[in-house]
Amino acid sequence: FFFQAEDGIRDSVASRGLGDVYKRQDKCRDAGIKIIMVTGDQPVTARAIANQIHIITDISQEYGYLVEKGMPKEEAERRCKAIVIHGDELAIRHKADLKKDENDPEKDLYLQQWLKKKEVVFARLNPVQKLVIVEACQKLGHVVAVTGDGVNDSPAIKQANIGIAMGSGSDVAKDTADMVLLTDDFTSIVIGVEQGRLIFDNLKKSIVYTLASNIPELVPYLLYIAFKIPLPLTTILILLVDVGSDLWPAISFAYEPAELDIMKRKPRIPEKDLLVTKKVIVFAYLQIGMIESFAGMFAYFSVMADYGFKQMNLFFFTFLEGCIPNGDPNQGTDIYDWTTQKNQGDDIRYFYKNCPKTKDKEYANLDYYYSESETLDTISDISNQRVRYTSEALKYAQTSFWIAIIVTQWSCLVIVKTRSLSLLAQGFNNTPALCGLLFETFLGVLLTYVPPFNIALGTRPLDVRHLGVNAFPFFFFIILYDEIRKLLMRVLNHVEKGKKPIYSWLHRNSLYQSTMINHQQSCPLYTS
């Protein structure tokens, strides 16, 4: 709830005109913010002013109006959508409630019923009554902001979750408040709410983008440990993702403009909707992260296949023993070294084929590998050794895996721009993010094709078919998957009157915040 002082609204009308004030009021309602006006005027005057500035939108649905038309008070109070309450009426009800026990469920029930009305105005209140109203709003579970400028407003400003003092107000009100509104303009508060949501959104988007690449960095090590495949991604390449290609795009979210529906969402619940939640983890790790992992492994297996190694035969391949090349086969066996230069350039097929202890094994059979006619015959510019059937093939596969992460992170940056809106509706108007995409692309090409970086980082100059081409299907799949997810979110989020929302798996495990799914709790703003 937002309790808005009448003077603050009048200042807004004087400086911006009624049209702009109407727009801001409607924006607050769309955002789930309920505005309660407190004025020193008599109820009739307060009702007229509230109707003029759209705090009361339909005067025919106001409690006092219905009573004037002859409707009984009890029925009018039950049926009205708007209500103007005199301070004397509040005092009488409150005095009667003081006799009730604190644990009595009927205590303050009258005030809670008033506050649940769609449009509420209080007239002729004293400082104690303002404080009572703030406490009642908080008891209903609302986050309350109070604006005021006088000494009498200080108790309510202090009690509120967010106390806002007018710049032209008293020193006591300013000292009590959490923030001072220098312009004395209500519309500045609405802009502040929007900016606060934007900052929270962009922090969460940056976190999701950063977390998504953790899974394709982790999966290669899990497969290496569990299935003994040659390591698909080195530690150095992981660091190149974390402090290299992902750095600029992650920072660029600080410049991301607001989503078109940012002020049409209901307020989040501060205790539940944190920056990092289960939904963020599931979305970043188990959805986007897993797709990126498939892209990286597909790139890895396709490169290894192009250089002679059949995909399924790579499993449990790193612990197979063979004879030391060019040595006495009777002196013992050795493990083929995939990581150092010990066996660099050695044809792995003959590591096993010419060894008496392994010649009868299936991996000593040339059919265990792709034939030379099916593979690329490449000489490495870095080691000056043949790539096919050697440990050099692993360097190329690792580089292709790294490039696949960069390509799929392009799509991750694009999809986290919105939570439910289509990318076609939102557009791409973040220049730093676009520069970030170009930067990580340039970095990937630079570290892949410049020889000094190849030597230092263990990368290799890839064939064109391996430079992200094998990851592009996953790039398009991530975008298509997320567009379908957002479409389903929008469709399932539509609830007809009298029906409960459809809480699907997507709602429970996606980037959405729980309070943004038809949540009826408003964020109270109190004006005094």
Keywords:
528 residues; alpha/beta; six-stranded parallel beta sheet; two-stranded parallel ribbon
- Global morphology: elongated
Main sheet? 6 strands, parallel
Binned strand content: 5-15%
Low-confidence stretches: 514-526
Radius of gyration computed on alpha carbons: 33 Å
Q: What structural class do helix, strand and pairing data support?
A: alpha/beta
N/C terminus separation: 12 Å
Number of strands: 10
**Average pLDDT metric:** 85
Question: In words, what does this structure look like?
Answer:
- The chain has 528 residues and is α/β, with parallel strands linked by helices.
- The protein has helices at residues 6-16, 18-30, 43-52, 63-68, 73-79, 87-97, 109-115, 127-139, 154-159, 171-176, 186-212, 214-227, 235-245, 247-252, 278-306, 348-353, 392-415, 423-426, 431-449, 451-457, 472-492, 505-508; strands at residues 2-5, 33-39, 82-86, 119-123, 145-148, 162-166, 179-181, 321-323, 333-335, 523-527.
- α17 runs parallel beside α21.
- It is elongated and about 105 Å long.
- The model is unreliable at 514-526 (pLDDT under 50).
